[in-house]
C-alpha cells in the first residue's frame, strides 16, 4: 500500500508533526532505509518489533519498515508508566524495541531497500494491546487479511479521496494500527499531536480547515469546554465522530448545538477490529441513544445480554495467550466484547454497560453507564462517573464522582434529577467532587483510579 501511495501521491504530504513533515514518497523511501537497518539488527520475518514512541513521524516509518521485513509491530502507548510499558514489552517479547526517535536515524541505511516480500494474507502484521482498566492488557493479533478487510470497509477501492485529519490519540491505538492501509490509500494529510490538548486540537482544526473532528468522548467534551471553541473559526467542520467509549446523550446534543453539525458515533472493541456506527444522515436520536447498526460485513449478536461481533476484521488471536483467545472467541467466530446491550426493533445497538463494571445493590444489577447518561444532563454537571463502593447492608452502593460546572450540585439534586428516569435502586447514594475525572492512557475514564479515590476518606472528614 505504501509503495502504491508513493507512486500515486509522490510529493503530497502524508504526515505533519510540528514543523516537520513527510511526503508519501519520503515515507516509502525512509521506511525502506529503516527496514534494511532492522534486518541488520537480525529482525526476521515473524519477529516482533515493539514501538514505544511518542506520536510523531518516526512511528509510521518504523511500522512500515517492520512490515517490509515481515516483522510484527507491537505498539506501546508512551502515556503508560514505565512499569506498564515494561509489562507490555514483556508480553510482546520483541527482537527489537524502538523507544527513542534517535534510534530511527541510527537504523537508516541511506539509499537501501529490502527485498520485496511475497504477499501472505495470513501473516501477522500488528499486535494491538487492549486498553481496559482492569487486569493486564492482552495483545490482539491482526494479519494482512484483517487489515485489508478493515481497509475495504472504511475506504472501499477508490484512491485519493482523503483530506486533512487530526491524529489525537496514541498511534499504538487500534485506530491507527489497523486503519493505516486505508489512510495510505486515501492519500490525505494527517496532523500528528505528540500530546493532545483541547486548545491545540481546536487551533489545528481552524488553521487547516479540517472538515471532521474525531475523538473519544472526553476529548470532544474538553474541546467544547475550551474558550477557543467559541473564539476560533470552526466553520469548516462538517461532521463530528465520537468513538472509543460511550458518548452521553448530553454530549451529542451539545456538539450539535455548539457546532451545528451532525454527530456520528462509532463502537467496537480492540479484538473485533470494526463494529457498529451511526451515519450523519441518520435521525438525531440514533447517535444520542445508540451506537448505530453494524458496519458493512459485520454481524451483531446478543447472547446472555452480551454484545458479540463477527466479521473478517476479528483478530486472529491474543499474542502468546491461547487460553484467553479461547475465552474471547466463540466456536462460530464471534468475539465476546464484554459489553452488555440490546438491539431495538430498528436494528440499533444500545449499550447498557460492561459486565465487569456492573455492581449489585440489594440484589439488583446496576450499570454505571446507564446512570451516567442520565446524570450528565443534570444542572451543574460537567462530567460524572458512577463507581461502586462496598456497603454492609446493600452489598454495594453507587458513588457519583462529579466534575462541577459552576455551583456543584448536591446529592439530593442529582437523585431528584435521575429519579425521573431511573429506578430508586440505581440512584447514587454518595457524592465526591473532583477537578477532572482521571483518565487512562487511552483517554478513557480510569475506573480503577476512581475506585481507589472513593475508598479514601475525604479531606476534612472524620
Main sheet specs: 6 strands, mixed
Cα end-to-end separation: 63 Å
| Strands side by side in the biggest sheet | 5-3-4-6-7-17
- Number-wise, the strands total 24
- Report the helical percentage: 25-40%
Describe what this molecule looks like in 3D.
The protein has 462 residues and is of the alpha/beta class. It folds into 2 domains: 348 residues, ANL, N-terminal domain (Rossmann fold), CATH 3.40.50; 98 residues, GMP Synthetase, Chain A, domain 3 (2-Layer Sandwich), CATH 3.30.300. It is 33% helix and 25% strand. The chain is built from 16 helices and 24 strands. The strands form 6 sheets. Strands 5-3-4-6-7-17 form a 6-stranded mixed β-sheet, sandwiched between helices. A hairpin with a 2-residue loop joins strand 1 and strand 2. The protein is globular and about 70 Å long. The mean pLDDT is 92.
Produce a short descriptive summary.
With 462 residues, the chain is an alpha/beta fold. It has 2 domains: 2-349, ANL, N-terminal domain (Rossmann fold), CATH 3.40.50; 358-455, GMP Synthetase, Chain A, domain 3 (2-Layer Sandwich).
Can you give keywords for this protein?
single chain, 462 residues, alpha/beta, Rossmann fold, GMP Synthetase, Chain A, domain 3, 2 domains, six-stranded mixed sheet, five-stranded mixed sheet, globular
Furnish the topology, listing elements before pairings.
Blueprint lengths: L1 H8 L3 E5 L2 E4 H17 L7 E4 L6 H11 L3 E4 L6 H11 L3 E3 L2 H7 L16 E6 L9 E5 H12 L8 E4 L6 H13 L2 E4 L5 H10 L4 E4 L1 H9 L2 H4 L7 E4 L6 H11 L3 E5 L8 E2 L6 H6 L3 E2 L4 E5 L2 E5 L6 E2 L3 H7 L6 E9 L5 E6 L4 E3 L2 E3 L1 H8 L5 E11 L3 E10 L6 H8 L11 E4 L13 H9 L7
Parallel strand pairs: 1-9, 3-4, 3-5, 4-6, 8-9, 10-11, 11-12, 23-24
Antiparallel strand pairs: 1-2, 6-7, 7-17, 12-13, 13-14, 15-16, 16-18, 18-19, 20-21, 22-23
Helix pairs in contact: 1-2, 2-3, 2-5, 6-7, 8-9, 9-11
Amino acid at each position: 500500500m505504501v509503495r502504491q501511495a508513493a507512486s500515486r501521491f509522490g510529493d503530497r504530504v502524508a504526515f505533519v508533526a510540528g514543523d516537520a513533515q513527510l511526503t508519501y514518497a519520503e515515507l516509502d523511501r525512509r521506511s525502506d532505509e529503516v527496514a534494511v537497518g532492522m534486518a541488520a539488527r537480525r529482525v526476521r520475518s515473524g519477529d516482533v518489533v515493539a514501538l514505544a514512541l511518542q506520536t510523531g513521524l518516526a512511528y509510521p516509518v518504523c511500522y512500515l519498515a517492520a512490515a517490509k521485513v515481515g516483522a510484527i509491530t507491537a505498539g506501546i502507548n508512551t502515556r503508560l508508566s514505565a512499569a506498564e510499558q515494561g509489562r507490555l514489552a514483556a508480553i510482546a517479547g520483541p527482537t527489537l524495541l524502538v523507544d527513542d526517535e534517535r534510534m530511527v536515524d541510527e537504523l537508516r541505511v541511506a539509499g537501501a531497500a529490502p527485498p520485496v516480500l511475497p504477499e501472505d494474507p495470513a501473516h501477522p502484521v500488528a499486535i494491538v494491546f487492549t486498553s481496559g482498566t482492569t487486569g493486564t492488557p492482552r495483545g490482539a493479533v491482526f494479519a494482512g487479511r484483517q487489515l485489508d478487510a478493515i481497509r475495504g470497509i472504511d475506504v472501499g477501492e477508490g484512491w485519493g479521496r482523503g483530506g486533512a485529519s487530526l491524529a489525537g490519540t496514541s498511534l499504538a491505538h487500534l485506530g491507527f494500527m489497523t486503519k493505516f492501509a486505508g489512510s495510505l490509500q486515501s492519500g490525505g494529510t494527517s496532523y500528528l499531536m505528540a500530546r493532545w490538548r483541547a486548545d491545540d486540537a481546536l487551533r489545528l482544526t481552524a488553521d487547516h480547515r479540517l472538515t471532521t473532528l474525531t475523538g473519544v468522548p472526553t476529548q470532544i467534551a474538553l474541546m467544547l469546554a475550551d474558550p477557543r471553541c467559541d473564539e476560533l473559526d470552526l466553520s469548516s467542520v462538517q461532521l463530528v465522530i465520537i468513538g472509543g467509549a460511550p458518548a452521553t446523550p448530553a454530549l451529542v446534543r451539545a456538539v450539535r448545538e455548539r457546532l451545528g453539525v451532525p454527530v456520528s458515533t462509532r463502537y467496537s472493541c480492540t479484538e473485533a477490529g470494526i463494529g457498529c456506527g451511526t451515519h450523519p444522515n441518520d435521525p438525531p436520536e440514533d447517535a444520542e441513544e445508540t451506537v448505530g447498526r453494524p458496519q458493512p460485513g459485520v454481524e451483531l449478536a446478543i447472547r446472555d445480554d452480551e454484545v458479540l461481533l463477527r466479521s473478517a476484521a476479528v483478530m486472529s488471536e491474543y499474542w502468546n495467550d491461547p487460553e484467553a483467545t479461547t475465552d474471547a472467541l466463540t466456536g462460530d467466530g464471534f468475539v465476546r466484547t464484554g459489553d452488555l446491550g440490546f438491539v431495538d426493533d430498528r436494528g440499533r445497538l444500545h449499550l447498557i454497560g460492561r459486565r465487569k463494571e456492573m455492581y449489585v445493590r440489594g440484589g439488583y444489577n446496576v450499570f454505571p453507564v446507564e446512570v451516567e447518561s442520565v446524570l450528565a444532563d443534570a444542572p451543574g454537571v460537567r462530567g460524572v462517573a458512577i463507581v461502586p463502593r462496598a456497603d454492609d447492608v446493600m452489598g454495594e452502593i453507587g458513588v457519583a464522582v462529579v466534575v462541577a460546572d459552576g455551583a456543584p450540585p448536591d446529592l439530593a439534586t442529582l437523585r431528584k434529577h435521575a429519579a425521573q428516569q431511573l429506578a430508586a435502586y440505581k440512584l447514587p447514594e454518595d457524592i465526591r467532587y473532583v477537578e477532572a475525572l482521571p483518565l487512562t492512557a487511552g483517554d478513557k475514564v480510569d475506573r480503577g483510579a476512581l475506585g481507589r479515590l472513593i475508598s479514601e476518606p475525604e479531606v476534612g472528614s472524620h
